[in-house]
Amino acid sequence: MERIGLFGGTFDPVHVGHVVAAVDTHAALDLDRVLMVVAGDPWQKRDRVVAGATDRLALVEAAVADIEGVEACALEVERDGPSVTADTLVALAAPDRELFLVLGTDAVSNMPTWRRLEETRHLATLAIVERGGVGGVGPPGDGWHVEHVKIPQLDIASTDLRDRLGAGRPIDGLVPPAAVRVIRERGLYTDRR
Ligand code: ATP
Ligand code: MG
pLDDT, tens digit, for every residue of 135-183? Predict the structure, then answer.
């Protein structure tokens, strides 16, 4: 069985908190690969997303290029319509694959708002990573397969990075250097809407 982690996000922009969550989940659950699934149309965040999907994908590709076992996934960027996790799990499901859905505790708390949540339950094991000291978060109902992954607590959020970039403050160290280069080359996040 191939063990694949799906770590979805807007990644607007990607930061080292995301990378550490992916890397440590890969190791802790002995996964073959972790796919960082860039949301093409994060329908719950439409009013807040700043960079386009292809730019956010390029940032994730740059951030994980040298990281063994972690890769960027373009499935949701290439698909039309709102990004729904159940669609992505169905697309990746195979008889010889076990899927793990990697989520920070804040994202787990938001799961009751997901589309086709019930279907999601049968498609993957939830891999919950603690974020912001918010522990004790469980699955949104009964019957879920759950793993908890302990990671270093890094108080970093894309929202803060967008604010920093908009204000001309540095992001070095918070965002992987290769992704910082892409942000600069493409002039992303300088023009706050
Ligand atoms: P925003 O501030 O725009 O919401 P974010 O930093 O929360 O951005 P997302 O793209 O919303 O990043 O999150 C994608 C996934 O990464 C979610 O499952 C979230 O819980 C997780 N995550 C984000 N930041 C961290 C962090 N610092 N540590 C652990 N997990 C994180
Ligand atoms: Mg978030």
Answer: 889 999 999 999 999 999 999 999 999 999 999 999 999 999 999 999 9
pLDDT in the model for residue 193: 44
| Mean pLDDT of the 63-80 span | 97
Separation of 111 CA from ligand 1 center, angstroms? 14
* Residue in 18, 55, 130 to alter for ligand 1 test, most ligand atoms within 8 A of Cβ: 18
Nearest listed ligand to the Cα of residue 48: 1
Cα–Cα distance, 106 to 108 (Å, whole number):
5
- Whether 32 is in a domain gets the answer yes
Q: What is the DSSP letter of 100?
A: E
Dig out the tokens for 191 from the structure. Answer: 């023009």
Total number of domains in the chain? 1
- Above 80 in pLDDT, residue 192? no
With a CB cutoff of 8 Å and minimum separation 6, the contacts of 58 are 182, 186
Distance CA 62, CA 177 (A): 9
Residues 85 and 80: their CA atoms lie apart, in Å, by: 13
Structural domain boundaries enclosing 153? 2-186
Tell me the CATH number at 49. 3.40.50.620
Cα 1 to averaged position of ligand 2 atoms, centre (Å): 31
